[in-house]
Structure formats: structure tokens, C-alpha cells
Specification:
It is a single chain. The chain has 244 residues and is an alpha+beta fold. It has 3 domains: 10-89; 94-150, no CATH class; 167-244, no CATH class. The chain contains 5 helices and 15 strands. The chain has helices at 115-121, 182-195, 200-206, 213-220, 236-243, and strands at residues 9-11, 16-26, 33-37, 45-51, 54-62, 72-76, 81-89, 93-103, 106-109, 111-112, 129-130, 134-136, 143-147, 149-150, 156-162. The strands form 6 sheets. It has a 4-stranded mixed β-sheet, with no helix packed on it. Strand 4 (45-51) and strand 5 form a beta hairpin. It is globular and about 70 Å long. The two termini are 28 Å apart.
């Protein structure tokens, strides 16, 4: 995805956060027109960057809102040909774990602050435009705030928690849920299969809400996950803010 110049707030879900150029094409002598259609939403806009006749990047100028599916990216101009791109649509994003900004060859993970602290320390600087170093997301407002406010389009990466898409049809292989979490799916499937035969004692071995194999696996899995969204132990952003 990419930030928008001098824009502080970004929708957590439902927007087109970025466009990936899959083929830069050739012979573009001027900036082509980029169109974004489909996906059920509206308002998403972008502009292309042309270097040596090749489209090297497409930056969002408006993420839009209400997108629930994939979009079609059109690139039109009379002289150039061959450029293609795909949109990054934020669908079903529930929460963020981390945010990173890429500037040249450097990828920087932003510090996170609870919104009350973010409001107090960061939002006073309404005309401070530079590379973002801190982010926040007030609950339950589905909006991500950045500080400093981006002074230019920066590539951005989100580590996000999302809803799952529909599971595959019966008898097909599921690839959405990776190991070891797929174990739990199999255990619960075994429970459903056995309970359909009305063999309730054996079904309870797999799931009974307390001590079944599925129950124990569900309790075990979160213990392998690191604590999310902790303060930076170095707190370097506070020194940077005070120097401004």
C-alpha cells in the first residue's frame, strides 16, 4: 500500500490501499490515466509514475470506501502500451498488529501508541509533514492515524488481522488455515462426523466444550503467539517528538 501526501488518517478496511505494478509497459511519453473500477466501492483514485517510458509505480491519491471485492485497474494513454497492475483492497480487516514504512532501501517499523497518548503527544503538530514514525487506531473507530503526517507517498505494509474468506467446497483441500491451526479444523470435523452417527460418547472425545481434543488444541494454540502491540523498549519516538 502507500500513504497519501499530507493525509493523516486512513480507513482500516474497505479502501483500496495501493496498486502493485505487474508490468511497467513501454513508450509512455506522458503520465497515463489510471482508473479503478469494480469491487463494490467508490472514490479510489491513483496516479502513475513514469520513468524512461516505463510505469515504475502507481500511487494512491484517495483510498475510497465501501470496497468488498477485487478491483480492476485500467491504464490508458495514447502512446504507451503493455502496462498492467492489480489493486490491494482492504477487505475484512479487524485489527492491526504493526505498521511499517519503506523509504528507499530502509523498512522502518513504526512505534504504536494508544490513541489518548497519540492525541496528546503527536496530533498537536498539524503541519508537520515527514516520514511517519508513530501510528494509532482508536477503538472502535476503524481509522488508522499516522505521525508525522506523510510528506510524500511512502510504500507501507500492514500486519493485519482479518476475517477469513469462505472455506472451499466439500471434499476440496483447504489452504487458508496453515499448520498447526489446521489440526483444530480436523478435530472438529471428526466431532461433527461422529455426532452425525449419534455416537455421542465417542464424539465427546473430540469436543465437549471442556476437555475434548479440539478444546485442548484451541487452548494450546494461542500460547505459541507472541504478545501483540507492545511499546517500543527504546521509546525513541518520544525524543524525536520533543526535538520538533
Amino acid at each position: 500500500m502507500n500513504t497519501i501526501t499530507q493525509q493523516e488518517q486512513y480507513p482500516r478496511s474497505g479502501g483500496v490501499g495501493g496498486i502493485v505494478v505487474t508490468n511497467g509497459g513501454a513508450n509512455y511519453s506522458a503520465t497515463p490515466t489510471v482508473t479503478i473500477t469494480g469491487g463494490g466501492g467508490s472514490g479510489a483514485k491513483a496516479s502513475a509514475v513514469v520513468t524512461g517510458g516505463v510505469i515504475t509505480a502507481i500511487n494512491m491519491t484517495n483510498w475510497g470506501a465501501g470496497y468488498t471485492g477485487s478491483v480492476t485497474v485500467g491504464i490508458t494513454y495514447g502512446t504507451g502500451t503493455g502496462a498492467t497492475a492489480t489493486g490491494v483492497v482492504l477487505i475484512g480487516v479487524l485489527d492491526l498488529v504493526s505498521v511499517a514504512i519503506i523509504n528507499g532501501n530502509l523498512r522502518t517499523t513504526l512505534d504504536w501508541l494508544p490513541f489518548t497518548a497519540f492525541q496528546a503527544f503527536c496530533r498537536a503538530y498539524t503541519l508537520s509533514f515527514n516520514q511517519p514514525m508513530v501510528w494509532s487506531m482508536p477503538t472502535p473507530i476503524p481509522t488508522v492515524f499516522l505521525f508525522q503526517i506523510p510528506g510524500q507517498p511512502y510504500p507501507m505494509e500492514w500486519d493485519a488481522i482479518t476475517t477469513t474468506t469462505d472455506l472451499p467446497a466439500t471434499n476440496s483441500s483447504d489452504t487458508q488455515i496453515p499448520d498447526p491451526y489446521s489440526d483444530a479444523v480436523q478435530y472438529f470435523a471428526a466431532y461433527l462426523a461422529i455426532v452425525s452417527l449419534q455416537n455421542y460418547p465417542q464424539a465427546a472425545y473430540w469436543y465437549d466444550g471442556k476437555k475434548g481434543v479440539y478444546d485442548q488444541r484451541i487452548l494450546q494454540l494461542p500460547r505459541t503467539v507472541i504478545t501483540r502491540r507492545i511499546y517500543s523498549p527504546y521509546r525513541t519516538f518520544m525524543r524525536r517528538i520533543r526535538r520538533m
